[in-house]
Amino acid sequence: MPGGRYDGRESFSNETDQLPGPFSNLTALQGSFAAKGLTSDEMVTLSGAHTIGRARCLFFSSRFSEMDSALAAKLRAQCGNDNNNVNQDDVTPDVLDKQYYQNVVDKKVLFTSDAVLNSTETITQVTENANMAGAWERKFEKAMETMGKIGVKTIGNQQGAEIRKVCWRVNS
Fold first, then answer.
1. pTM (two decimals)
2. Which residues 6+ apart lie within 8 Å of 141 measured at CB?
3. Which residues bind Ca(2+) (predicted)?
4. 94 is in an annotated binding site
5. Which of 74, 67, 123, 130 is CA-nearest to residue 100?
6. What are the sequence ranges of the domains in the chain?
C-alpha cells in the first residue's frame, strides 16, 4: 500500500454498514462494490481475503445444508452456540492464499456472500484464481491498492486525520 496518506484517528461502528454483509446475494455484492468504484473482478479478488480470519457461527449456521457435508458436520460440532467462532478457511486458516477459491468450488465456504461466487457470472474468475499459481496474489495486490484509494482524506479535508508513523495505530 502506498504510504503518506491521511488517515482518521477514530473508527466508527456506524460506518461498517458500507460493507456487504455475510448474507448478501450476488446482486447486493456487486452493487456494494460498484458503489465504491470497484469491478466485479475486484469483488471476486478481494473476497479471497476470507481465506484468513474467523467467523461467528451466527452468520452461517443456517447454511449447513448447503455446504460440503463433512465440513458442515465439523462446523455443527464447533458451533455449540451461535456466538462461537471458527476459522473461515478450514484447510489453511492462517495463510493468505488462493485456497479460498477452491473452497468456493467445493462448497466449503461459510457465508452466503462467499457461496454466491459459485455462480455462472463469477465462476470463471473463481476457477482461474484457484488454479493459476500467482495470479490471484498479483490481482489481490492491485485490488487492495485500488480499494485503499477509496475515500482518501486530502489536504483539504484532513480534519481529525493524520499521516501515521506506524500504519496500524494512531500517532501519540
1. 0.84
2. none
3. 51, 89, 92, 97
4. no
5. 130
6. 20-148
* CB contact at 8 A, 48 and 101: yes
Whether residue 68 is annotated as binding a ligand: the answer is no
**Does 20 carry a binding-site annotation?**
yes
Q: Identify the residue whose cell numbers are 443456517.
A: 62
Helix H or strand E encompassing 56: strand 54-56
Residue 7 assigned ligand-binding role: no
154 is in an annotated binding site: no
The tens digit of pLDDT for each residue in 115-149 reads 999 999 999 999 999 999 899 999 999 999 998 88
CATH topology of domain 20-148: Peroxidase; domain 2 (1.10.420)
- Nearest-angstrom CA–CA distance, 13 and 126: 31
